[in-house]
């Protein structure tokens, strides 16, 4: 049921978007991610549920093998991300820069970036001047946009007592130096903030990884136990049939 809800939400969000925006940022579209995760989860849980109810060895084997592959992929991703941290950092930087380019093309992506910049108190990838990659915030003199040399409002320093958010607080900040801009916006990039957060929350990340891995391991073990029980029952039935058919046995 959760898988169906994920697919429905992803498809609904996708249909609400403009076609050109959908094509432009297909690789970083949260709606597509929801649909893919929902479909894969549905197929996997369908094999496990129907296979256990019908005692179908083929479906149970499919469930067990797929779950094993998912577990090994997660383990490999964690190990490779730790060993090749520099390459992982470069990949994260590439994703963030691509998201900055399509910031105005996709409302879901825009909300996701704004949420990340607010939560981590950061702006851009490496620095706030990375927003010049976006055609609306580009700081060249030939850019006719009213947002030229600006940054999104999610980069701004907010006063706790401020009742109304000033969405134009980042206007012209790219044209200012780090020291001058730091009085109004967050000048540090989100990549360093994300790396520092992950280093300071290793136990939390490890707990999340363990929480995801344990149910998968339990599912694999239970599926194999059920398969062995079904095979034992089949062998017992064949033995009984042979014994009844052969009176001299």
UniProtKB/TrEMBL annotation:
A matching Pfam family: Tetraspanin
GO cellular component, one term: plasma membrane
GO terms under biological process: pore complex assembly; protein localization to plasma membrane; protein maturation
Cross-referenced SUPFAM superfamilies: Tetraspanin
GO molecular function: enzyme binding
Transmembrane portions of the chain: 31-53, 65-84, 202-227
Keyword tags: Cell junction, Cell membrane, Cytoplasm, Disulfide bond, Glycoprotein, Membrane, Transmembrane, Transmembrane helix
Subcellular localization(s) per the UniProt record: Cell junction, Adherens junction; Cell membrane; Cytoplasm; Membrane
Protein's membrane topology: Multi-pass membrane protein
Domain of life: Eukaryota
Gene3D superfamilies associated with the record: Tetraspanin (1.10.1450.10)
Coiled-coil regions, chain positions: none
Cystine residue pairs: 122-155, 123-139
Primary residence: other
Family according to the record: Belongs to the tetraspanin (TM4SF) family.
Protein name: Tetraspanin
């Amino acid at each position: 049921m959760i898988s169906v809800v994920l697919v429905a939400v992803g498809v609904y969000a996708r249909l609400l978007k403009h076609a050109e925006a959908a094509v432009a940022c297909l690789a970083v579209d949260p709606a597509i991610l929801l649909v893919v995760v929902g479909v894969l989860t549905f197929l996997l849980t369908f094999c496990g549920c129907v296979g256990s109810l019908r005692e179908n060895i083929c479906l149970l084997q499919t469930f067990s093998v797929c779950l094993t592959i998912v577990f090994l992929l997660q383990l490999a991703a964690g190990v490779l991300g730790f060993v090749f941290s520099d390459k992982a950092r470069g990949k994260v930087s590439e994703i963030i820069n691509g998201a900055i380019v399509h910031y105005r093309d996709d409302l879901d992506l825009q909300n996701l970036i704004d949420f990340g910049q607010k939560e981590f108190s950061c702006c851009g990838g490496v620095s706030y001047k990375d927003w010049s990659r976006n055609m609306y915030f580009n700081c060249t003199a030939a850019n006719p946009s009213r947002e030229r040399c600006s940054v999104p409002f999610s980069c701004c320093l907010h006063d706790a007592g401020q009742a109304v958010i000033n969405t134009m607080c980042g206007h012209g900040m790219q044209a200012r130096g780090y020291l001058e801009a730091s009085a109004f916006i967050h000048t540090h990039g989100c990549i360093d903030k994300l790396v520092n957060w992950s280093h300071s929350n290793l136990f939390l990340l490890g707990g999340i990884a363990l929480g995801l891995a344990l149910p998968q391991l339990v599912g694999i073990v239970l599926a194999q136990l059920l398969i062995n029980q079904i095979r034992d029952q089949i062998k017992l039935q064949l033995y009984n049939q042979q014994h009844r058919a052969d009176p001299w046995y």
